[in-house]
């Protein structure tokens, strides 16, 4: 990702210093969308877009000493200049060409979520919306491809057999096809895989419009946390984010207003938790509009995932912010979504970030009460560490209101600065 570009550069230099003749291949969102930046780095190949088939074809060509000219999705250097082969069309996952991940080949293990071993699986790729902040459309166009349920269930079983107790579905937008999602829930239940916990990302419109049938099924299948792309509660900001359509509820083919509250209510009624994805600090935002969104999150969502608009390469949002002269920070290693790197027309970036930081800590602390019911031992053992992390920079005096919270925020920023040094 973009915030990892500097780290990637440092790893490349380290590898080169140890083994100068090694071939370096980069891929993923940032190399695909900012290939010119990687062309200036010390790399041999850039894999743009989906990686599996392109990388495979590249390896075969290198093994056989063959030309790489015909490999779609590949950029390479011919000794004089960079050649960018034609794009590779989005992979039709239905064809079964992409095999299951080989989990035994991993070099890092032991990732957990709330103390339970966690793994990721995909059931689909792509999205047909075009939110201005999202990289997906530039990355692969507007399309949606799905794996067969046999493959998905085999993937879940494989993750479980490797110890996973929680599964994160990393689909870009699984709720594009609600009927399929419902059928997937049935398949998980029938396959006896509903003893695992599932996390998923979803659109508010789909949950609001179909939640009466979908939400109970999700719950039965084991879904526990739903990451809702609320983005913003104000119509003006939703327009800037090009996210009006996906946040509009529909009944009998008619638009019936903002979908967020109804989606949250349906998920809550079915005993699922809402991770609320919001974006604050958009160009027209005032202190009041930011605080309205934060107050909403505090009242309705169980866990905040509040970000600042971040101008990632080639997104429509990046163009808008640049044209309006609102980008105040070009240090890409800070483009992690929780550092405000743009200001609004009315509020400085630092203040936008301060408002989010101040509100978010308490929302996170509050959720520990619910989490303790599900994972009591983990929370009891780790609550002090989790609270210390959430409130890093704060003192008893600042928490009790005897010290200006801006001072605590400055300390928090200094700690984050130190944390980033390894990058
Ligand atoms: C799931 C997801 C998450 C999950 C990750 C769960 C997990 N542990 O895996 C969560 C919610 C935790 C998350 C967090 C973040 N995410 Co995220 N996330 C996604 C999402 C939805 C899908 C990513 C995915 O796994 N796809 C499936 C895999 C198979 O596809 P893939 O990653 O694209 O990889 C393919 C190719 O890119 C390529 N490829 C990738 N790497 C390489 C390497 C080589 C060598 C090669 C050859 C090819 C290659 O081949 C792969 C197979 O085809 C995307 C896209 C979206 N619609 O929003 C965003 C996205 C990747 N995330 C993004 C961001 C910014 C973040 C955060 C910084 C946000 C934040 N503030 O928290 C953090 C960073 C977390 C971290 N420290 O790594 C951005 C990246 C934009 C950019 N230009 O950098 C995206 C694109 C969303 C967006 N804003 O547009 N994310
Ligand atoms: S709906 Fe989600 S995946 Fe699709 S463009 Fe918007 S943010 Fe990206």
How would you characterize this protein structure?
It is a single chain. With 423 residues, the protein is α/β, with parallel strands linked by helices. It contains 16 helices and 15 strands. The strands form 4 sheets. The protein has a 7-stranded mixed beta sheet with strand order 5-6-9-10-11-14-15. It has a 4-stranded mixed beta sheet with strand order 1-2-3-4. Helix 11 (287-300) packs parallel to helix 13 (349-374) and helix 13 (349-374) packs antiparallel against helix 14. The radius of gyration is 23 Å and the shape is globular. It binds cobalamin and iron/sulfur cluster. Cobalamin binds next to strand 1, helix 2 and helix 4. Iron/sulfur cluster (SF4) binds next to loops.
Name some characteristics of this structure.
423 residues, alpha/beta, binds cobalamin, binds iron/sulfur cluster, seven-stranded mixed β-sheet, four-stranded mixed β-sheet, 15% strand, single chain
Short structural summary:
The protein has 423 residues and is of the alpha/beta class. It has helices spanning 5-18, 29-33, 35-39, 52-64, 136-140, 149-161, 178-190, 204-221, 235-240, 260-269, 287-300, 316-323, 349-374, 376-390, 396-400, 405-419, and strands at residues 25-27, 45-47, 74-77, 82-84, 112-113, 116-121, 124-125, 145-146, 166-169, 197-202, 223-231, 248-251, 254-258, 273-279, 303-307. The site of iron/sulfur cluster has 11 residues, from loops.
Outline type: globular
Write out the strand line-up for the largest beta sheet, numbering strands in chain order.
Answer: 5-6-9-10-11-14-15
Bound molecules: cobalamin, iron/sulfur cluster
How big is the Rg? 23 Å
* Helix share bin: 40-55%
How many DSSP-defined strands? 15
Give the N-terminus to C-terminus distance in angstroms.
13 Å
**Number of contiguous helices:** 16
Mean pLDDT: 96
- Poorly predicted parts: none
Share in β-strands: 15-25%
| Structural category | alpha/beta
How would you characterize the largest beta sheet? 7 strands, mixed
């Amino acid at each position: 990702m973009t915030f990892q570009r500097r780290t990637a550069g440092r790893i490349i230099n380290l590898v080169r210093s140890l083994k100068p003749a090694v071939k370096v291949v980069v891929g993923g969102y940032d190399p695909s969308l900012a290939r010119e930046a990687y062309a200036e780095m010390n790399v041999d190949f850039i894999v743009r877009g989906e990686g599996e088939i392109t990388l495979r074809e590249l390896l075969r060509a290198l093994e056989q000493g063959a030309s790489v000219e015909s490999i779609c999705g590949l950029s390479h250097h011919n000794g004089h200049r960079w050649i960018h082969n034609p794009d590779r069309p989005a992979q039709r996952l239905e064809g079964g060409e992409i095999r299951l991940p080989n989990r035994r080949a991993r070099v890092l293990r032991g990732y957990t979520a709330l103390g339970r071993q966690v793994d990721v699986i995909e059931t689909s790729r792509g999205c047909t919306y075009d939110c201005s902040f999202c990289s997906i459309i530039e990355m692969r166009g507007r399309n949606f491809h799905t794996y067969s349920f046999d493959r998905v269930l085999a993937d879940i079983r494989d993750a479980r057999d490797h110890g996973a107790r929680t599964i994160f579905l990393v689909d870009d937008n699984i709720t594009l096809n609600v009927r399929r999602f419902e059928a997937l829930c049935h398949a998980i239940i029938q396959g006896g895989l509903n003893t695992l916990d599932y996390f998923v990302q979803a659109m508010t419109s789909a949950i609001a419009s179909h939640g009466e049938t979908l939400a109970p099924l999700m719950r039965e299948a084991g879904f526990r946390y739903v990451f809702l792309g609320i983005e913003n509660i104000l119509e003006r900001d939703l327009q800037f984010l090009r996210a009006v359509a996906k946040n509009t509820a529909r009944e009998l083919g008619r638009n019936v207003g903002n979908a967020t509250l109804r989606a949250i209510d349906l998920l809550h009624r079915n005993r699922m938790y809402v991770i609320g994805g919001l974006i604050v600090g958009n160009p027209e935002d005032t202190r009041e509009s930011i605080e309205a969104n934060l107050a909403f999150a505090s009242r309705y969502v169980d866990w905040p995932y509040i970000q600042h608009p971040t101008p990632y390469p080639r997104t429509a949002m990046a163009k808008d912010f640049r044209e309006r002269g609102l980008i105040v920070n070009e240090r890409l290693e800070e483009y992690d979504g929780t550092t405000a790197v743009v200001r609004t027309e009315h509020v400085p970036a630092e203040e936008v970030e301060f408002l989010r930081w101040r509100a978010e800590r308490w929302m996170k602390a509050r959720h520990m009460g619910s989490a303790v019911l599900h994972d009591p031992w983990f929370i009891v053992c780790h609550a002090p560490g989790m609270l210390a992390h959430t409130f890093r920079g704060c003192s008893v005096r600042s928490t009790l209101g005897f010290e200006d919270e801006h001072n605590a925020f400055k300390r928090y920023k200094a700690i984050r600065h130190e944390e980033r040094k390894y990058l």
